[in-house]
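Supplementary Methods S3. Complex input for the zinc ion-bound model.
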Amino acid sequence: MSAKNGERIPTKAYAAHSKEWKFKPFSFTRHALGQNDILIEILYAGICHSDLHSVSGDHHGTTYPIVPGHEIVGRVVAVGQKVSKFKIGDYAGVGCMVNSCGECDACKRSEEQFCERGKSIFTYNSVDYFHGNENTYGGYSNNIVVSENFGIKVAKDADISKIAPLLCAGITTYSPIKFSKVKKGDKVAVAGLGGLGHMALKYMIALGAEVTCFDIVPSKKKTVLKLGAKRFIDVNSDDFKKIKNEFDFIISTIPYEYDINAYHKMLKLNGEMAIVGLPVKANINGADMIWNFRKKIYSSLIGGIKETQEMLDYSIKNNIYPEVEIIPITRLDEAYQNVAKGRVEFRYVIDMSTLS
Ligand code: NDP
Ligand code: ZN
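Predicted complex, serialized as structure tokens:
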């Protein structure tokens, strides 16, 4: 794989052509390597529940064909003339964004996900206004071209097959955990124990917090206790309804409709709840909130590039990796069904060498 001067780069991928979760091989070209760009040969890509939402068209509009994948890791195979952060042969990661305006206050303080001009360019299904408004295609593919500013450096000694999920599941949980200053001894909870949830569990255990896990799949109990959770509670049990005023912090990764008040009441006075799960709809009752006193609920979206680098370095240094199941790309359709039904513990990662 190489980048010839000024020429567009041929890419092989798997794409969905409608909201059905059915993928087939798809070829396209990526924009030519610019002076500040790197070309990455993709080695592994994670499957995030956001990919399922995107193919289904759950939130914003979806342009088909769609090539999802925003948990990407690979090897740098070409660098533009002005690139200084990477050299050929380095490992590099790409998360949910490939560019942003770069000029507003949010971008300048490296919170590019909150670009004040609304101009974050997402890794797939997004308009790349730096490159003729072409549609972006994600990581279920053999390569990606990205500005070096949006490439994340991956240490040589990293466990490379487990890195990809950190680029979304890792940063999306790490960022609010840091924002809420979770610390040793805090009583905390994770709602929804999937790709994101189990990373939240790992980070908060590493910080010395006491973690309760909530999920609808009781069979996850054994694994989360093994990972260090203090207790597991089935959200359909009576125990769930009894909990009140208990937690300093809750992170919800639930991807389907649920009752936010049920968790709000579990917070201690002044406790904080971060919502990162993206259900099409979630219910909240203002009066019930008030009668459960002063507690904070906020939303959080991935994390900026600087914080993503910090998260990755911290995770590698402290040996905090996701639990992954590596699959060939030919199993994509089946993998989507399994993610939707909670049949994966905890993240599928596609081995991109299986893309022929
Ligand atoms: P997963 O499917 O891997 O995990 C979700 C987990 O929540 C599953 O274990 C699921 O069980 C469980 N669950 C479903 N319904 C409930 C419920 N009512 N109560 C408790 N647990 C429940 O998804 P991901 O971790 O990949 O993503 C989670 C959500 O976060 C998605 O909506 C995704 O789009 C969003 N997201 C948001 C980001 C952000 O920046 N804010 C970034 C990345 C993702 P089961 O599988 O059995 O349904
Ligand atoms: Zn994601």
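The chain has two domains: 9-168+322-354, 170-299. The mean pLDDT is 96.
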